[in-house]
Amino acid sequence: MADYRELWESLDMDLEKHDELCQVLPEFYGDIYMTQEKRPEGMNYFNFVISEIHGLRIKELNEHRKNGKKVFGSFCVFVPDEVILAADGIGVGLCGGSEFWVPDGEKVLPRNMCPLIKASVGAKISGTCPYFQSADMLVGETTCDGKKKAWEILEDYIPMHVMDLPQMKREKDKENFKDEIKIFKEKVEEVTGNKVSAESLKETIKLVNNKRKTLQRLYNTRKAENLPISGKDALLITQVAFYDDTNRFIDKVNELCDELENRIEEKVSVFKEGTPRILLTGTPMAIPNWKMHHLIETSGGAVVCEEACTGTKYFERLVDEDNEDLDSQLRALSERYMGINCACFSPNDGRIDDIIRLYKEYNADGVIYNSLPFCHTYAIEYKKVKDALEKEGIPVIMIETDYSLQDAGQINTRLEAFFEMINMNKELAI
Amino acid sequence: MNSNTYILFPSHSDGLALEKKLKEESIKYTISPTPRSLSECCGISIMISPEICHTVESIIKENRDIRISGIHTIERKSRDWFK
Predict the structure, then answer these.
(1) What is the domain partition of chain B in residue ranges?
(2) Which residues of A touch B14 (CB under 8 A)?
(3) What InterPro entries does this protein map onto (chain B) (predicted)?
(4) B43 interface with A at CB cutoff 8 Å
(5) How far apart are CA A333 and CA A178, in angstroms?
(6) A409: which chain B residues are within 8 Å (Cβ-Cβ)?
(7) What is the dihedral of CA B8, B9, B13, B16, to 10 degrees?
(8) pLDDT-based confidence at B80, cuts 50/70/90?
């Protein structure tokens, strides 16, 4: 076994506490993921990534930094990776998806706030996440009040840059976000010492678009009647997309897609016929938050799509590649990113259209609206989504839950009732 | 007894080298996080069914450049974390 302890020590990690995490993760992943039947062989790569989650990738980031290059940590799908890559930097997603980090987060944050923020801050201040420890700078944004204020605490621990994300989608807001991307570009140039040229940005816009196209290809396989991959596995791939090496990720997901497309031709399904198809919508699910998918897929449902940051928000729509000068490229980036229908915008009717469209595209039978506790924007938006879905005759339930394992029984009961109702509707329709 | 055999490696590249060989020979395997009971270091191992352990051992013998740091067969256990 590779011994990464020296590397972790060099990153100023709390080795003893980190070891507590290492004691749990392999077993947790094994029980949730490796007990699934008929998993595609291509998932071996993702088993590899998870097994080496605090090892090989951290070593790669460390080597990158030894060569004088920089690593940027971010928390949101609005931070444009294209700009970081164009300056020869690496961007990694840093959201915390484990209960493990919450108590440390609560040392400096109020308890009644979203677990994603508490876990993210806790991961940094406890020194137990090697990704945080490998970042030269964190890039925050103003998507919600909780995050906005948390950056002020985090900047005592690590250099921060905060992007001001507009809260409306008027023309002037798109113009403002273009300016924000420009300011971010200048910051990245300052930190890396590398200029972002129109040529380099053109290349990385293409590269990140390719990553989006690859994920679109993956998600397209989930539209098939016979599902070639579980929702849980698809979620894992989207989560890994946030920090894996972009080129390697594209290659491996394409290899997997070849296998999945063969499975569709051969009508191989990982679920039994008639399993209710679920569109999951709501707040992001950061590694290792696999809770909702696991509960749904062990209660008789199958997740066919995620309308979430760890889902379609991350890869739908491409950046226009046909621009030769920086100004037009920045405008194209702003256009694409401001097209994300995040609940931080007011109004946000585009998200309702997305949910209804995805429900039809993925041939779903019902929608589960999933929200982390204290996420006001997503929790409040449920009312409008629910009204619109009911008008369309689409079954929907809202489940609010954090990372803890205690409420699983209660959620299972609600899910089973929801699936039973869906099955009854299907029978009545015949 | 329901069990799995794990092959452990001194580095991930040895694991990937064996994976390549197993793929060529069409042998069923799964890349897996190394169970904590087998090693305290994080990283990959290759999980196979105990029945094919001999076949895999002979592949390892034939390919001396692939280094391994142990082969262990342990009982398959899983628990429901959400109960």
Answers:
(1) 3-75
(2) none
(3) Se/S_carrier-like
(4) yes
(5) 7
(6) 82-83
(7) -30
(8) confident
Please answer whether residues A139 and A181 qualify as being in contact, where contact means their C-beta atoms are separated by less than 8 angstroms. Answer: no
A-chain residues within 8 Å CB-CB of B8? 1
Mean pLDDT of A319-326: 98
| Partner-chain residue, chosen from B34, B40, B83, that has the shortest CB–CB distance to A51 | B34
CATH class, range B3-75: alpha beta
Residue by residue, DSSP assigns A94-134 as -----GGGHHHHHTTS-SSS-HHHHHHHHHHHTT--HHHHH
B1 touches chain A (CB under 8 A): no
Cα angle, residue A184 at apex, residues A182 and A188 outer, rounded to 5°: 115
Q: Under 8 Å CB-to-CB from A71, ≥6 apart: which residues?
A: A61, A64, A65, A89, A90, A91, A92, A134, A135, A136
For residue B10, what is the nearest residue in chain A, using CA coordinates?
A1
**Both tokens assigned to A105:** 């987060």
Nearest CA-CA partner of A291 in A359, A385, A372: A372
Tell me the per-residue pLDDT of A269-299, one tens digit each, with 9 for 90 and over.
999 999 999 999 999 999 999 999 999 999 9
Query: Would the CB atoms of A2 and B33 count as touching at under 8 Å?
Result: no
Bridge partner residues of A279 (DSSP): A305, A367
Contact A163, A184 (CB under 8 A): yes
Enter the pTM of the model.
0.97
Omega before B10 cis (within 30°)?
no
Of A359, A380, A376, the closest CA to residue A368 belongs to A359
Q: Which residues pair with A137 in a beta bridge?
A: A72
The residue type found at B76 is R
Q: Which residue bears the tokens 């491409």?
A: A318
> Do the beta carbons of residue A103 and residue A122 sit within 8 Å?
yes
Using a CB–CB cutoff of 8 Å, tell me whether A414 touches chain B: no
Mutate to test the interface with A, among B19, B76, B82 (most CBs of A within 10 A): B82
